[in-house]
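INTERNAL AUDIT FORM
Audit reference: QA-55
Scope: verify that the stored structure record matches its stored sequence.
Auditor: D.O.
Record contents follow.
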Amino acid sequence: MKTKHPTFFVLGLVLLLTAVACNKEEEEYYYDALSPVYMDFDEFRQAPKVMPAKGIKQAGKIYFKDNYIFVNEPNEGIHVINNANPSSPQKIAFYEIMGNVDMAIRGNTLFADSYIDLIAIDISDIMHPVEVGRMENAFPEILPFPIEENLPFAWQEIDHRKGVIVGWTKTRLKASYPGGGWWGWWRTSADMAFTNAESGAGVAGSMARFMLNENYLYSVAQPFVLKTIDVSAPSQMQPTDSINTWREMETLFRYDGNLFVGTTSGMMIFSLENPAQPVFVSDIDHMNACDPVVVQDGYAYVTLRSGNTCMNTTNQLDVVDISDIHDPKLLKSYPMFNPHGLGIDN
């Protein structure tokens, strides 16, 4: 029996190769992307400065210790507020810490992130803080938030040898592909899809990314990496554990010997029986959303919210029964209006 299919296949292949051969010349196209802005490592790693108190432009994380309130100004530093008289709190100083987003305090030591580093600051004298330790490259993959979310990052231009990345600038970049026809269109689409897929990596963390427990600091070092750092000696901080997770982590909350992790797709629970090495216990799913969590008396409270960065249309409070820590169960959900966080007090 005769068939024309093999002949057709060979002819089609010849035509395809001929088309590619006829379009060998490279064609160029231009696109806008975010290129990194660097700061020299020596300049970046200067000790934090104490500045006069100033107004709060954008409040980030808030931390309460003794009679003081510490308020983060994202990427700039920490406002110090004397709250001895709660009816009349007084701003008394501003700690200038480049790239600061998170903080935690143990005794008289303030732990704060500074772009890629973790620093320990002695605040025994609140008006004269002293840097007593620095763990360099504690968060090597954390990058500052982009100035324009709708642009891809120019990853091919990043060179960590030039210094720490402190921002982004819009740049016109040139790319090329084999000219002509559908082949050129495919290459262009593939390149742009890659750069856009990576853009989410530019976002650094959300609420309560630091959590202290005994002599250890737990941190969302990267969206999928939970890092444990021994801070018993602030001058010699050392990592003791690093866990790669399958969920994108956002928030940390410690309660009753466990670490509760809010992620974009659910809540995870880690046992802190060995504080140096958290161990996964269980998790519970929810719709893809931004997800802070607090815990008390056998219940976890989780809020979900809508928004472009959260990739979700649901706004609600979930109440989760964690009486069996190995088998958390959703009890009930309450509708809410775009919740951005929560706290609990009895």
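Auditor finding: record pair retrieved intact. Helices lie at 5-21, 41-44, 181-197.
Action required: none
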